[in-house]
Write a structure and sequence with these properties.
By secondary structure, the chain is mainly α.
């Protein structure tokens, strides 16, 4: 059994495989709402369980 490395990408959308790093990169490029991030990644277009995570990342980026 192997231990996951601490620098392993955190997947926040299992439907599209979108990582937290990818969402942070898009926010830094000016993607400022859920629809824009969904269009770019496919996140939030499946089951929708990642919506709250992405919205939280967007909210934190405004701080």
């Amino acid at each position: 059994m192997t231990n996951p490395s601490s620098d392993q990408e955190k997947i926040i959308c299992s439907c599209s495989g979108t990582t937290e790093t990818k969402v942070h990169q898009l926010i830094a490029k000016g993607f400022d709402d859920l629809d824009k991030i969904a269009s770019a990644t496919g996140a939030s277009t499946g089951c929708g369980s990642c919506d709250i995570i992405i919205l939280d990342l967007l909210k934190k980026s405004d701080s």
